[in-house]
Design brief:
This protein has 356 residues and is of the alpha/beta class. The chain folds into two domains: 2-159 and 338-355, 3-Layer(aba) Sandwich (Rossmann fold); 176-336, Rossmann fold (3-Layer(aba) Sandwich). The protein is 43% helix and 17% strand. The chain is built from 15 helices and 13 strands. The strands form two sheets. The protein has a seven-stranded parallel beta sheet with strand order 3-2-1-4-5-6-7, sandwiched between helices. Strands 10-9-8-11-12-13 form a six-stranded parallel beta sheet, sandwiched between helices. The chain is globular and about 65 Å long. It starts with a strand and ends with a helix.
Amino acid sequence: MKICYFADGQSIHTQKWCTHFANLGHEVHLITFRDCRIDRVHVHFLNVGTIATAGGNWRTLFAFRIVQRILRKIKPDVFHAQYATSYGITGALVNFHPYIISGWGSDILISPKSSKVLRVLLKWAFRRSDAITVVAKHMVQAVCDLGVNREKVHVITHGINTKLFYDQQLTKQDDFTLICTRNLEPLYNHIQLIEAFEISQKKIPQLKLRILGDGSLRKELEELVLAKNLDKQIGFIGRVSQEEMAVELNKAHVFVTVSTTDGDVVSLVEAIACGNFCIVSDIPANCNWITEGENGLIIPLFDAEQLALAIDKSFANYELYKTLSCTRNKEIVSSEGNWDKNMEHAQKLYESLVKR
């Protein structure tokens, strides 16, 4: 099969999709507005200037004729846009079939509510698609609210590489270490995490926090930590490889994510697989994976004091929580979090659309 993706080449999710199907022996092409190199994948870079992760990249719409020319040349069996509001809308202008649009999170859950123009464009793009995929069950209704027939929507959770992310049972550090691997963007609410850490650290001197990833708020967050004199307790690690991520998660005790909205929260599944007890914000995406008191604690949004209480609770009861969550986490990863197993659904979708 010849598959052409239309997506952000610098996204780890895009790279995983491309690599997976290339490794299965398919001919894989990627048309992208952010250049990259992926083994065994034919990358077609379209330079439309700087692409902002926060959105507002309207000029990408005018590139659809170039995309048309590329598609006429490579003649794929399937054209698949990843991320609905940018690549998805532009891809709909191309008018190639079969055409799939995938929603990852805020492109479905936030953008249509914050912009009437985007809502109209998404409705139009979805009508021109042959199938729509979302990464979590709670996103299905949001797509249907845009006038899409339920039968057209497929849930394909990303999942993780279970051969890389697993509980290595490493000896934990003497410090009690929290870890957060979310990008440093407003959506992920790191300020609340830092404020909660400050409260708890006064009672738990050995408490440490490691923040992995990067983003537009890094300088602001580093300055906040310095102002609070917590730079020896809170470390900003930056971006790391998937292999390094797995090791970091295994060395930590508790994973924390307090995002305001999310899709399938791959970072959370990675943490679960590596044996972390988890503290998460009370949003549907997190509650798909975490059951209060079983494999994590669920705290209200924007409440640093409640988050601090959860940190204190996890410290006081860590061995008990670790034991309780172990079996549950293995079951979750095996049934719903396995990347290879989940991608079998994508393969079947491609085959059904080609036959149709």
